Amino acid sequence: MNYDDWKLASPDESGMISTCCGAEYRDEYESALEFDYFVCESCQDECDIIEDYEYEQNQKESYMEDLADEQRLER
């Protein structure tokens, strides 16, 4: 692929991951025509899905809140 084709190519699809563990997920169907829910590949629990960058942002915010809580407890 030459540079021009690479620049004009659509970006890779953003990764969707589970909200619980940030792992891959699978779709579960109870009937052939109806989507029912997602299952996390890591913990095997039912989960929601979000973009990978949203998961990373949520984890960062959670870490910052935990750090702030620890600092408050030390005072």
What does this structure look like?
This protein has two helices and five strands. The chain is of the alpha+beta class and 75 residues long. The chain has one domain. A three-stranded antiparallel beta sheet has the order 2-3-4, with no helix packed on it. A two-stranded antiparallel ribbon has the order 1-5. The longest helix has 23 residues, at 52-74. The model has no long low-confidence stretch (mean pLDDT 85).
Task: Summarize this structure briefly.
The chain contains two helices and five strands, in the order H-E-E-E-E-E-H. The protein is an alpha+beta fold and 75 residues long.
SSE diagram, text form:
Layout lengths: L2 H6 L7 E3 L6 E7 L2 E7 L5 E2 L1 E3 H23 L1
Antiparallel strand pairs: 1-5, 2-3, 3-4
Poorly predicted runs are: none
Average of the residue pLDDT scores: 85
| Contiguous helical run count | 2
Shape: flat
Give the tally of structural domains. 1
Give the strand tally: 5
Largest sheet: 3 strands, antiparallel
Beta-strand portion reads 25-35%
Structure classification = alpha+beta
Biggest sheet: strands side by side, in what order? 2-3-4
Radius of gyration: 19 Å
User: What order do the helices and strands follow?
Assistant: HEEEEEH
The share of residues in helices is 25-40%
Distance between the termini: 59 Å
